[in-house]
Amino acid sequence: MNKYIMCSLTRLRTCGEVLSDITPHASTLLSGPGYHDGGLERVNPKQDFAFVVLHQLNFKKRDNSWTWFLTQLKVAIGESDGLVFISDRHPSIQKGVATIFLRATYGACYWHVGQNLRNRFKSKGANTLFNQAAEAYKLSKFRSKFAELERRHPHVHEYLSNQVGIEKWARSMFVGERYNIMTTNIVEALNSTLKRAREYPLLLLLDSIVEKMVEWFNKRREKAQNLTSPLTPECDRQLRHVWGEAGTLTPIQINTNEWVIRGEGYDAVVDLQQMTCTCKKFELEKLPCEHALRAAGEIGENKFYECCSIYYSASYWRIAYEESVYPFPSQSDWEISDDIGEVVVLPPELKQQRKRGRPRTNRYRSSGEFPKRKHKCTKCGEEGHYQKKCPQGMFERRDD
User: Of 179, 239, 222, 254, whose CA–CA distance to 318 is shortest?
Assistant: First the structure.
């Protein structure tokens, strides 16, 4: 069997509906990209994961693999109007989402889009303007930065508008609720965690994934049970940090729910009942901005927590990890039904012989994604250290 899916349905139902992409990497089995791991990222700091192992040889089979996975995912979690997919613009993922999740919204990881800009155009200053436009909360600021990008780098503007799609990478133009999920960092972190396990045979790989899930779920369950704050730890820390900035603002009450918050160079209007602010950060991230916190502070501390989305609450965090994850039983204890036991599983067809040399173990990087630069010693010429920490130089100093 060359297709698997493993997911936690409880976590899929209790966390915000933002799904992060599945990043490809190489396999030690056969040739070419043999495995895919799938990460589903939810509202920070609640993460969820579903895994699928797929073998793919060409684009047609790659599309079929993603279609199969997304079909299984739809069976597991259903479909809703608030569902959002964030990926690195993998064409097979885009096709699958558009075909299977008809009511979902698709967005692009703006970090990967920025890397593509560096690789394609190499325009000085273009990425800075792109980042400012992508991260802008207010539509007016986005239009200002994007207009400047069009004036200085028209070819980059044309690529982002027509080939990528503004609504996929710009926070202020996105149709849907992606909260603060602008990148696919959680998938990259997961790739790093499973870097060594990916070299294992298939069953050992799955065992390693399950063991890691057992460890993570147990740690987070214990942490959630001992939590005293109404919010998750990360959101609680973020609110406390923002409150330090809100202390310098001046609140003016308009009515029971609306306030004018005056600051340095900008006056914001906050509606605590509708959970909106003219800075747009409050309604886009579903977490109070400094203006909303200043207005809520005039009412009472409990109002802080009422302004947060329920997906940031500690109660939802506890529900997400209340079920346990169990490791696979020993293969000798497996109970296989007759209809499954009679299935003959054939290896995938290989149209070309594997290339010579050791099979690659590192994942394939997305277009425009560059590896980290390694430091090279000017004394011995080897990578990984500077001249001051060169082992050769240390031995010479000892001899002196």
Answer: 222
